[in-house]
Amino acid sequence: MGNRAYLEGVAKGTVPAPPISKLLGFRLVEAGDGRAVFELTPGEHLYNPIGVVHGGVAATLLDSAMGCAVHTKLPDRGAYTTLDIHTHLVRAIHASTGVLRCEGEVVHMGRSMATAQARLVDAAGKLYAHGSSTCLILPGPGQS
Description:
The structure is a single chain. By secondary structure, the protein is an alpha+beta fold. It has one domain: Thiol Ester Dehydrase, Chain A (Roll). It is about 25% helix and about 40% strand. Strands 1-2-4-5-6-3 form a six-stranded antiparallel beta sheet. A hairpin with a 3-residue loop joins β4 and β5. The longest helix has 19 residues.
């Protein structure tokens, strides 16, 4: 199964989601050509000591959406790793925020490096976080 087909299967529920999805309670809902979308319904179980959802949760969603967007563009069995991620948290997230949607897209896809961006918004389109990422493209098994 190719990279894009794998992610499409996760989004459809025909392929098991990675364990991090279950741990944090987010789900891949869409995967396509250079695009990946995750959703999360925040809860108090994700709160930090000051009573809001931990910023690391937003960063994880952004990183997941951007990385999976890149993953959809790779050749079968190709791999990547995040080199850097820039996260901008612009609004606090609470259990009362409702469903959040994180949309990631590839900005540039090169032979050895890719860049991507993502936005985390609520149902009304209000922005909670946004970010960008650089990914190193790695050869898959048997590739050089």
